[in-house]
Each structure stands twice: as structure tokens, then as C-alpha cells.
Amino acid sequence: MKTKSVPFFNYSALFEMYREEYTKIFSDVCERGAFILQKDLSEFEENLAQFVGAKFAIGVADGTNAIILGLKSLGIGLGDEVILPSHTYVASAAAVHLCGATPVLADCGNDHLIEPNGLEKHLSSKTKAIMVVQLNGRTADMNPLEKFAKDHGLELVEDSAQAVGSRFKDRSAGTFGSFGTYSFYPAKVLGCFGDGGALVTNNAEIASQVMLLRDHSRDDDGKFVGWGTNCRLDNLQAAFLKFRLSRLQGEIQRRRKIAADYHSAFSSVSALSLPPPPSDDSEHFDVYQNYELEADERDELKQYLARCGVGTLIQFGGEALHQVEVLGLSANLPRTDQVYRRSLMLPLNPSVDDEQVQHVCSSVLDFYKAGT
Ligand SMILES: *Cc1c(COP(=O)(O)O)cnc(C)c1O
Predict the structure, then answer these.
(1) Which of 66, 195, 228, 371 has its CA 20 to 30 A from that of 15?
(2) 63 pocket-lining for ligand 1 (C-beta < 6 Å)
(3) Phi (first) and psi of residue 81, to 5 degrees
(4) Coil, strand or helix: which one is 197?
(5) Residues facing residue 294 across a β-bridge
């Protein structure tokens, strides 16, 4: 066995990818002393809004706070309920909880995203919103979800932390509902060198609310017009992000190429259920934040790959939100339970080169040849 190594994610490669450019940006921003709410931030916001086709983009401290400020701008709080999938990061539900509202967890479908059929059973007189989570860089089939929200008078919001640049029917993840949010955590599709996030919306009222909330509710004249907080995106991170956004389309192409390579290598292995390949249909444009497959003998496969030097991850620490006891959100969600018994993520990001892709492919194939 070759001892080639493919880490699940290579954090320092983030910097090495564009070392020279980032070094220049760092000097430039620091020499200008441009640290808080400067032009790099507003330029990044403009470019991001244009990139995803939203009227407004507002940089905030991180993806979790983006959801919190968005929910607050809609007035969601004490006594309200928000329906969201259990297969998501704790932050989606924590944002609801920290606004004073109650998360209500729903099952996922075969695409690992919220299952639109049967959502009615989660409705109550307190339901105010449905939060779609565009997980793994895939945008859900939004048609039935938009209809569900409309039929029941609910706000539709999107946690698109993992899905910058992903599209469904030529509309970007994050732009379907009242607002959408992104995370710039380093390992995300558009990662920065620390924490960062943004909210996008086509609604001017929501945009101005969030602009106020992120900066102590100070208006343009510096007057305090209500309660707010400090939830700004650092200008330095915004400057890095503005540069990386200009390269993102190429990075997404690389991600899609790796996903296509995985798909063609594994499509004949019946023990694996794969995410749809990039060529699957014209309605979905996936950015493959993650390559989350389902596998018979998942744990043995994970161990075998570790021995081959291939880093893998079970998403969210291997627990869906309804399985995390302290959250008190237990629910009967059989498909999500099954996903958490079977799912595994392979390394997929722009720093994984062709040789590493080959090593991952041959290691997985070897496991199924040798094993069963
Ligand atoms: C990363 C992530 C978040 C949180 O983003 P942070 O920037 O880390 O606060 C929220 N939801 C999902 C689905 C995520 O993957």
C-alpha cells in the first residue's frame, strides 16, 4: 500500500494557493489602517451581491450570527416556531433558539436536504418560518418548499452557509427566501482566514435592519436608533474575501471536476450511494462543499481509508440535531437516522490534486474489492 496522504482539509493550503496576492492585500489594508467598516468591506459586499444575484449583501461576523440577525430582522422571537432539517450544523437551530424561538426538526430526503413531503405535520399555530439548509453545496428543489411557505403564510429563509455559488434553476442559494446566509469559515467554499459571514436579501427593509443590528444600531449619522450588537465582518477579512471571490468560479469548476471523477470511479460500486454528479441535470448547479456519500460498512471503510492516508469526516460529529440529547429536540426522523449510520465525506476542495483524487479512488475501490 502506498503511503500517500490526502488530508480531509489542508488549512495552510488556503494561504499557499494565493500567497503573493494575500500578502499584498495584508500590507495594503494595514498600511491604510483600514480595519473596521472600510471600502474593502463595501466593495466585497457589492461583488458578493452581484455574484449571487441579490440586491443586498451585508458582511457580518460569521454564518451563525448572519442567521440570528436575519431572524431578528423578521421579528422572529419568543413563542415562535421555525421548521428546519435535523441534518444540519447545530448553528442553524442555535440561531433560532438564541432569538427566543423554538426549532422544530424535519427529516431529510435522498438528496440529504429537507424533505418537502410531509412537512405539514410540523405545523402549529406558532409556526412562523421554514429554514431550508442548502447542505453540501447543493440547493434544494425549491419549488415545493416555496409552495409550502406560501400556502401556510410562512417566511422562507435559507441557511446557505455551505452553498455560495450553488444554484437551482439559475437562481442562487440564498436568494429564494426573505434572506439567505453564508459562512466564510476557512473550510467553506468561500473561506477566509478566520470567522466571517454574510446575509443576502432582496428586501431593503431587512437589509437596513441587519446593517443597523451588526453595528450597535448606529445610523449613518452615528446616532443610536435602537439596541444592536457588534457583529461586523473585519475589513481585512473582507479584503481577502473580495480577492478570493474573484477566483471562486475557477475553484468551483475544480470542485465539480473532482466530484465528477469520484462519481465515475464509484458508480459501479453497489455498496455506495453517491451524490448526483455535476452532469446529472440542468436544474441543479452544485458547488460540492462536501462529497457526502452513503456506504454499507461505513465505519470499516473509514478505518480502511485512514490506513491508506485518506482523511474522511462524518459530518457534524456524527450526530443529527434530534440525536443530541442536551438540545431537547428529539424526533422520529428515520431517513436522517439512516444517513447518520451510513454517511461519510471524502476530501474535496481545490487543493486536492489529480494524484490525490486517484489515490482516494483506488483506496475506496480496493476496500470493496478486498472486503466483500
Ligand atoms: C458552517 C455552518 C454554519 C455556521 O457558520 P459559522 O460561520 O461557522 O458561524 C451554519 N450552518 C451550516 C449548515 C454550516 O455548515
Answers:
(1) 66
(2) yes
(3) -120, 145
(4) strand
(5) 273, 343
Q: What is the pLDDT of residues 63-115, one digit of tens each?
A: 999 999 999 999 999 999 999 999 999 999 999 999 999 999 999 999 999 99
Looking at the whole model, is its pTM more than 0.90? Answer: yes
For ligand 1, pick from 84, 112, 159, 313 the residue to mutate: most ligand atoms within 8 Å of CB.
Answer: 159
Distance from the alpha carbon of residue 161 to the mean position of ligand 1, in angstroms: 5
Closest by CA position to 105, among listed 317, 327, 340, 316: 327
> Which residues lie closer than 8 Å to 196 by C-beta, 6 or more apart?
59, 60, 61, 62, 183, 184, 185, 233, 234, 237, 238, 241
Convert the pLDDT of each residue in 242-297 to its tens digit: 999 999 999 999 999 999 999 999 999 999 999 999 988 889 999 999 999 999 99
- And the C-alpha cell for 7? 488530508
Q: Residue 21 is which amino acid?
A: E
- At residue 289, the 3 state secondary structure works out as coil
